[in-house]
Amino acid sequence: MSIDLTPRIDPAPQEDLKLLTALIHPHLEGRVVQALQELPQFPGFTLVEVRGQGRGRGVGGTYVASEYDLVYQRHLRLEIVCRSSETEAISGLIARAGWTGRRGDGVVFVTPVESFARIREAGAPSETEGGAR
Fold first, then answer.
1. Phi/psi at 28 (5° precision)
2. CATH fold label, 17-126
3. Which residue, 32, 40, 58, 131, has fewest beta-carbon neighbours within 10 Å?
4. What is the pLDDT of residues 15-74, one digit of tens each?
5. 3-class SS at 95?
6. How is the chain split into domains, by residue range?
């Protein structure tokens, strides 16, 4: 039995989707996540531990690489795919929950999403393939 690996993505998206990406302090994770969970339409999110340098070139960072003595800031990258109409409210919520007033508070930016498919739905066999696996 061969499996068709072509994803079933609706060519005409029903909604204009955006990828909202925020870099936040790790110690503020709970505050930001709690604020997101209080939204009426909880968007779901992905968190990734990251390190890097902002305009301050890592001053006050917590990670030192041994070979070149580079200083990095540790942050969490929060990624949310949401409707275009929700980006301003969600980014404002993240900015308020992640604010300390000090250098290195992080950033929030929005990029367009070209296509979107849930693996559970896009990978499901078609009726001609015989239903459930």
1. -105, 10
2. Alpha-Beta Plaits (3.30.70)
3. 40
4. 799 999 999 999 999 999 999 999 998 889 999 999 988 876 655 555 555 567 677 889
5. helix
6. 17-126
